[in-house]
Amino acid sequence: MSIRLPKDTIARIFQTCSFQHDSTRITENTLSLMDKYMELFIREAVLRSIENKEQVKQEDDNQIDDSIVLTHKDLEKISGLLLLDM
Fold first, then answer.
1. Distance CA 10, CA 38 (A)
2. Pick the CATH number of 7-85 from 1.10.20, 3.90.76, 3.30.1050, 3.40.50
């Protein structure tokens, strides 16, 4: 499974959220590095959410269904520790 964000999207995120001056530029190497970092971050978020959901499921013996469906609430539960660990 490969998670890829378009480099234009990554550059736009930097431009709108991080750069204070319109003249600031970002290199192609930096975009490639951020692409790899974002892939790692997203993968870790999904894996932690699944692990957390499975723990909750084991504690709740009433659940019969074996499928796991992640929602934004599952990501919110793990986001604090994920950001601290990264």
1. 9
2. 1.10.20
